[in-house]
Write a structure and sequence with these properties.
119 residues; alpha+beta; HIT family, subunit A; five-stranded antiparallel beta sheet; 3 helices; globular; binds adenosine monophosphate; binds zinc ion
Length: 119
Amino acid sequence: MKQEEKECIFCKIVRGEIKSDIVYSDDNFIAFLDINPKAEGHTVIVSKKHFRNLLDMPTTLGNEMLEVVKNVSLDLIKQGKAEGFNLVVNNEPVAGQIVFHAHIHILPRKKDDGLKMLV
Ligand code: AMP
Ligand code: ZN
């Protein structure tokens, strides 16, 4: 295992070394609640294999990841935790990336929740 994978916080979650509130898991992806939620149900979808960010991920895996994002988002809506949602992907420090392991944020939205987005 590479040193960066040993130390990576999301790799540790994938390996079960750090506890998290897992809401979905399959062969290639895991989804868990963000430890510092910006909204109720704030979820991150993470590839089980370590990539620095979205640019390093093979496109085929990206397609699969989008399907997981759609399914988890749909679950949030079905559970009444979201009426809609925003997806956020921070790539590189200048864009606010803190954890250097490919992931997509799902931010559940509700009417008048006051959450401000960049765009
Ligand atoms: P970013 O790299 O800016 O997209 O953000 C990484 C996200 O990971 C932040 O929203 C953190 O709150 C979240 N995070 C960091 N450590 C953990 C953890 N152990 N469990 C769940 N979420 C985490
Ligand atoms: Zn990692």
